[in-house]
Amino acid sequence: MKKLTCIICCLYGLLTHAQNEIKGQIIDASTNQSIEGANVYLPELEKGTTTDAEGIFYLKNLPNGPQNFIISFIGYGTRSVYYVFPGNDFFKIELNPTVIEMEDIIISTPFHKLQSENVMKVDKESVMELKKQGSITLSEGISNLSGVNTITTGLGIGKPVIRGLSSNRVLVYTQGVRLENQQYGGEHGLGLSSNGVESIEVIKGPASLLYGSDALGGVLYINPEKFAASNAVEADVSTAYFSNTRGYNSNLGIKQSGEHYKFIFRAGVTEHSDYQTKDYRVTNSRFREVDLKGGIGYQNRHFKTDLRYNVNLSKLGLPETIGEQSTQRRPLLPYQEVGNHVLSSKSTIFFNSSKLDFNVGLIYNDRKEFEEHHHEDEDHEDEEHEDDDHEEHEEEHEEITEPALHMKLKTLNYDVKYHLPERGKLETIVGVQGMTQSNTNYGEETLIPDATTNDIGVLATSHIHFEQADLQLGVRYDHRRINVFSGLQKNFNSFNAAIGLKTNLFKTLTTRINLASGFRAPNLAELASDGSHEGTNRYEIGNENLSNENNLQFDLSLEYKSDHLEFFVNGFYNAVSNYIFLSPNGDFIDEDPVFVYLQDDARLYGGEIGFHIHPHPLDWLHFESSFETVTGKRSQNNYLPLIPANALTNVLHAEFENKWLTNGYAFIKNNLVFSQNNTSQFETPTASYQLWSTGAGGTIEVFKNPLDLVISMTNIFDKAYISHLSRLKPDGIFDIGRNFSIELTYRL
Question: How far, CA to CA in Å, does 720 sit from each of 166, 277, 716, 732, 736?
Fold first, then answer.
């Protein structure tokens, strides 16, 4: 009995061992004055707090092992502090005043460092900054990032393009897991709302080492909003109005964090009518979206977990021709109903000097496409009035209750990484990632067959810190198996590697050099499609003899940063072997041209260059300018399709504060898009155009709580233009005209 009592006491002692804690003070390096409201955040734990009136912060219940503390505050340079627990030090941390924007931690790379410490160049932007520029949807906002564009089908459907590559060549991550939603289709959008999203990170170039197949062109990493600070409750309600579409986006959220448990919930609804160009409304570009997000987290000294769920239900019109002119919000035929469900779990087990991360995602995509039914016994070929009357549209709409195309895609993916104990200047991660996926058809039409896909990959990567440089390298092996229920079975294998170096040539000049290989296994549509693709007006036939796409990309980045001037230049060369593309073979099926999948070698090259000036003593005034270019060619010097035009962007930005307005800003932006004459065989050139936009906003106090105000106007002069990446371009349909928007967010 005494032995049992001793064992229980020992176990109790281990479990109730004094918790690691940290306490410190944040001060101004030039005045030694304490800084109230500074943010102290531990990205590995997703835990943080703010300093009190004396600049003091306090965090407890922290695990053993190394941690990075990120300290930030507006008007000061961001600090990263490395500390190994256990320990009981009192920190006194100095922040240096600066007019340079605050840095943030990069989540999409495995070692979670500040951008200035990262070997790989990653761009990051908050969703709030994108909203300030007047973006109506998340897809539209993404196109404001340097080197990123969007292939659009009207306003409601957009898919990202990174340096000329898109669809299954760009991988999207949300809630820490891989998003799968039939992204092969040109008219298949993200299926994600900007509500409840904090920031977006972009890896430009092959990231197969970190993410496997489909990251050949890059990664779009969408970070959800953080939980509330420790022992705090936060709530907000927001609404936005858009004049062009007479649309709105309203959402509300609440979150609370205790010492161990935390939760978050957000609900939003978006609705838009057909968007207006200078001359007409684009018929059936209307859409509606309902978005719900929820999450719960738990953390103790040895373990943390974060479980989140997002359901996005959208009803999207598919514009084809200019017809009915109205501000109705109910889509006409053809239209899509898409349900996108993402259930994710991110967990970490902390050991004394190492840790184990394991993420699991369940994604369920339910896609329905409704169109006019054409039965063989019908004889309506001579009815010339069927599109002339809105009531007839409505009656026909009521009769269509079953989708012509109905696919359900179910995906389970997992990502397990073990962070080995640090050995001096060496950090190493080994891991395994995988995915199992099934596609099932339920509609009367079939484009891609019922099938299963299974992926598995193993990787190892290291980050080595030298005195004057940082080196990152890694290797990876992947295997994919596709099993089509009609009998086709395919196996694909790939070995990839990456190496990168970051060094400071001078105190103010940083260079990054990266060389990486990537791959993409053919997807189900490319291998086995056999049917009419709604919205593209073509009949697609797969090619079971396709092999892996492989690429090798070289990146060079130079960054100069001083107190009042920042300058950057990024260049890349991307060689892609066995590039997969669609080409017509001259045949027709059901009056649609037949397109088949072929392969050829390709190369893409280009980059971005820009500068940011904030002259002294006018530190509140900022001028930013950037230019981006990309060229894509096949082996015979034929140009690749859907390559964005060169673009020059200039922004004049002012920041100000007074007694009644904080975080005040105003800007005017000019975006010059050059003509695109380097077109593929089946494209036509696109004329140049120039767009102006402006905006202002800030925070005021209402009933002792902050009210954020964002006002913007895009396409100020109501320019009639067509983007080269618009899928409505062959029909000569213009992009959106002038739009005025206002957004109010009240925080409790």
Answer: 26, 7, 11, 11, 8
pTM beyond 0.70, yes or no: yes
What are the start and end residues of each CATH 2.40.170.20 domain in the chain?
A: 148-152+161-372+387-747
Q: In what order do the strands lie in the sheet with 157-162?
A: 148-153, 157-162, 165-166
* CATH code of the domain made up of 148-152+161-372+387-747: 2.40.170.20
Helix (H) / strand (E) element for 466: namely: none
Q: Range(s) for CATH 2.60.40.1120 in the chain?
A: 19-98
> What pairs with residue 30 in β-bridges?
none
**Residue 45 contacts residue 85 (beta carbons within 8 Å):** no
First to last CA, the chain: 55
Whole-number Å distance between alpha carbons of 251 and 21 = 36
| Strands 592-613, 538-541: pairing kind | parallel
CATH number, domain 19-98, options 3.40.50.300, 2.20.28.10, 2.60.40.1120, 1.10.760.10? 2.60.40.1120
- Written as one letter, the residue type at 23 is K
Per-residue pLDDT reduced to its tens digit, 492-547: 999 999 999 999 888 889 999 999 999 999 988 899 888 877 656 788 899 999 99
Task: List the structure tokens of 127.
Answer: 């969703």
Query: Which secondary-structure segment (H or E) carries 555?
Result: strand 549-561
